[in-house]
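Let us practice reading a record.
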Amino acid sequence: MEMKKRIHLELRNRTPSDVKELVLDNCRSNEGKIEGLTDEFEELEFLSTINVGLTTVAHLPKLKKLKKLELSDNRISGGLEVLAEKCPNLTHLNLSGNKIKDLSTIGPLKELGALKSLDLFNCEVTNLNEYRDNVFKLLPQLTYLDGYDKDDKEAPDSDGEVYAEGLDDDEDDEEDEEEYDEDAPPGDEEDEEGDEEEEENEEEEEEDLSGEEEEDDDLNDKEGDDDDEEEGSHFWLRRPVFCINFYH
């Protein structure tokens, strides 16, 4: 998707002046230039253009409120002097994975007085001798370089710490689940006791019903025997009586 079209989609019926964060990662730039981004984005504070094929930032509009700029995984090799004019209040700049080979390329960044964090991972400049010491000397306003300060202490908002916090949260959740399983709430026990009582009542009802059926069968059998006895008695009563007359 082209950058202009992507910006149009990201606006989502908003005006450029309403946008504070804009993510254009993995779209296509035209001839390695930023396009479709204008001075109308005056409230923009965060801009991400990761892996869009940029070779220059010369066409970046004036974004006075921009604080964080993501330019990683592009083909930028210079021209960083425009950032002091275009984005004078930058505090975080990510240039990881670009074609920055020497310290002179990042020298113009010293004009960014508010810059606190700079990332140059996977750039050739990181292979230079005493790379970290020289960058901190060149850019004295920096607090963090590649996620660490001068004393090699990790930045508080680094991905590593966020990941570690996530692991701690997961462990806490697991412990809570184990405690929950071991100490079941009293409500569940009452439900189980109620279920057992219902089962016992059902069994008693079944026994009562079976007993009543057996009694009914016995009564039916007795009635059948009485009927047979009555029929037998009637049979004897209905036998004909023969009278013998003696003729003289």
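A brief commentary: The two ends are 143 Å apart (CA to CA).
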